[in-house]
Design brief:
Blueprint (H helix, E strand, L loop, with lengths): L5 H7 L3 H16 L14 H9 L4 H22 L9 E5 L5 H9 L5 E6 L2 H12 L14 E4 L7 E2 L2 E2 L5 E6 L3 H4 L2 H14 E10 L6 H9 L3 E7 L9 E6 L5
Parallel strand pairs: 1-2, 1-6, 2-3, 6-7
Antiparallel strand pairs: 4-5, 7-9, 8-9
């Protein structure tokens, strides 16, 4: 299984100053009576979320998403530590955007891994694919990692090249700030229905909780679909939106 070192944690983390500046800018905009771009998407219906993210491009997306990127670079290493095979793993990045969370997975990946990123927004997927073509995803040794990307809602059965992901074929699936913020509980239930089919026995998932799908709801949804809760992955000790790490019941052999 992959190891995550203290050096890895330090290398990946964005500084507190970046988060502070981002939030200060947000508060300043709101303080002048204006709305930040993307405001109102958290907890909204699927159409509002889709339209909101479709309108966020380039710097606007990165400005809106910086707090989540800050969180992901702390949470993902803690969630995956010791839980993904070092070689030949299949890993799903649920809500990858333009490859923001994929960068973190690629950092720990072996070139033999299959990483599949999913996002609802076509221009985000186009950017992620272009980055992969430019060999921008690399692991901690500098080796090129080549994720593939699919444009679809993660509340629908997950596909690769138009075909359903094979049953019991996934070693790890992680959501990057999507489930708890932008899915409704019924959508989260549909996602977990699919994950219960495609994650191998003994494999893991790490899904974020939040205002739309709080911790208790997410724990119940996972438990009812054959996942055992293992731990919380937090970016800092008062983390309001932790990742819940579950293991699929059954032997991995």
């Amino acid at each position: 299984m992959i190891a995550v070192t203290t050096r890895d944690l330090r290398t990946l983390r964005l500084p507190w100053s970046a988060l502070a500046l981002n939030k200060a800018h947000e508060f300043w905009i709101k303080g002048t009576g204006r709305r930040i771009k993307g405001q109102g998407m958290i907890g909204a219906d699927a159409r509002t979320v889709a339209d909101g993210f479709d309108a966020l491009r380039g710097d606007d997306f990165h400005e809106y998403n910086l707090p989540q990127a800050w969180v992901e670079r702390r949470q993902i290493p803690l969630a995956i530590r010791g839980r993904i095979p070092a070689h030949g793993a299949t890993v799903l990045d649920l809500g990858c955007g333009p490859g923001t969370s994929t960068e973190v997975l690629a950092y720990f990946a072996d070139p033999s891994w299959t990483i599949i990123g999913y996002d609802l927004i076509d221009h985000s997927i186009a950017v992620a694919r272009a980055r992969a073509e430019r060999s921008e995803f690399r692991n901690r040794t500098g080796a090129v990692i080549r994720p593939v990307f699919e444009c679809q809602s993660i509340a629908r059965p997950l596909l690769r090249a138009g075909l359903p992901i094979a049953s019991a074929s996934v070693d790890f699936a992680v959501s990057g700030g999507v489930v708890g913020l932008y899915l409704q509980p019924t959508d989260a239930a549909q996602l977990l229905d699919d994950l219960s089919r495609i994650v191998r026995p003994g494999g893991y998932i790490a899904l974020d909780a939040g205002p739309s799908v709080p911790v208790a709801t997410l724990r119940a949804l996972g438990h009812n679909r054959g996942f055992v809760f293992h731990s919380l992955a937090k970016s800092f000790w008062i983390e309001p939106r932790p990742k819940l790490v579950f293991q699929r019941l059954g032997s991995s052999t």
